[in-house]
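Hi R.,

Here's the chain you asked about this morning:
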Amino acid sequence: MLAHGQLALAKGLLIALFDRARSERVEVALICFGGARAELRFGPAVPRWWNERWLEPIGGGGGTPLEAGMRRAAQLLESAARRDPARERHLWLFSDGRTTQWPARPRHADHVSVVDCEGAAVRVGRCRALAQAWQGACFDAEALLA
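And the predicted structure, written out as tokens:
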């Protein structure tokens, strides 16, 4: 995610999604994972403002613990399903697909969107494959800015 400015691109898209959630009064959560852990940075709540401290520590550069991140997301989605079973739950995964882990689709995600942040000249295509395996949509990060 560090190469080709992809991490900065992902952060910009994340800010736009949080702004949209705030204007639509939609509850969101932000889980960041890297190195060896996954951590909840915000929510679940309706964002009232944007705080740069949520994004600043997000790093890149390999070692993506995708399974840990999806376990944490699955816990939040399950909790949301218990609180309000009628409300639809969306999972957005931002990744460059450069991971060897292939976790199961979180069961309580009604809709899955994988944002492909891969910027290398030779694309591996794992984000698209993961989205297909999870019966979700895959979006090219750069196309979302257009």
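The chain has one domain: 3-145.

Let me know if you need anything else.
M.
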